[in-house]
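Lab notebook, design round three. We kept the backbone fixed and only want residue identities now. Task for the bench partner: fill in a sequence for the structure below.
Input structure tokens:
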């Protein structure tokens, strides 16, 4: 069972969230704070596994509180709870586990608790073959490249073009097949034409009218249909709190 903090400057919002969290058997002790300052004082005395933070609190906002918690030895998993959709990108920049919109639905909150439990679980040893070799036909010869050298993949009909730092390579495999085969190696589909390696993504812009990811010096579009999946993968790959 996990211990949590609910911080909000509106008591009805606290009561609702505490009630819903109390219905989840994975949640144990639930602390409450009506301001960011009160939350800091409480967390200094009582470390918790996760903090559900309202963004718009007077004085110390939820984002301010999250930055303050970065200096704590025991940093809880962060979930922002707000009626504002515009803060999602900043939330992910702060390594939030989730971003909940008010009014919070019970089933959505259960998913959030599941993410917290997963984030607190010690990471399993990485046994994925990141250095798997890929055979690329080149005229009458075959060239071998490492999969972890591939920055992104571009769809070209029944073929896929692999983009690496040293150049591009065409393979006769549909991008949809690579999406399934390489998901465990950190590749995520961001557009019908593009599959990117998260390890090579340097910048992400999700909050604008034209969401995009930057890989090396190339900006790739993120389609609206792929946006939820990308956000889920970003949440899964967020920095884990210390145990």
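Proposed sequence:
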């Amino acid at each position: 069972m996990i211990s949590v903090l609910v911080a909000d400057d509106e008591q009805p919002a606290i009561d609702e969230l505490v009630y819903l969290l109390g219905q989840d058997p994975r949640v144990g002790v639930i602390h409450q704070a009506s301001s960011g300052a009160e939350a800091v004082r409480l967390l200094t005395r009582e470390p918790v596994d996760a903090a559900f933070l309202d963004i718009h609190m007077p004085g110390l906002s939820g984002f301010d509180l999250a930055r303050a918690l970065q200096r704590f030895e025991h940093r809880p998993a962060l979930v922002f709870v707000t009626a504002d959709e515009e803060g999602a990108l900043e939330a992910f920049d702060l390594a939030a586990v989730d971003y909940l919109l008010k009014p919070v639905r019970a089933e959505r909150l259960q998913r959030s608790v599941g993410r917290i439990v997963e984030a607190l679980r010690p990471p399993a040893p990485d046994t994925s073959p990141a250095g798997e070799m890929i055979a690329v036909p080149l005229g009458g010869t075959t060239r071998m490249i490492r999969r972890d050298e591939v920055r992104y993949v571009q769809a070209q009909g029944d073929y896929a073009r692999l983009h690496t730092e040293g150049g591009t390579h065409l393979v006769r495999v549909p991008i949809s097949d690579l999406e399934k085969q390489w998901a465990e190696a950190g590749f995520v589909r961001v557009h019908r034409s593009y599959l990117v390696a998260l390890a090579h993504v340097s910048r992400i812009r999700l909050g604008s009218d034209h969401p995009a990811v930057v890989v090396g010096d190339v900006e790739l579009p993120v389609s609206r249909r792929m946006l939820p999946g990308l956000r889920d993968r970003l949440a899964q790959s967020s920095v884990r709190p210390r145990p």
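Keep this in mind before ordering anything: The first strand starts at residue 2 and ends at 7.
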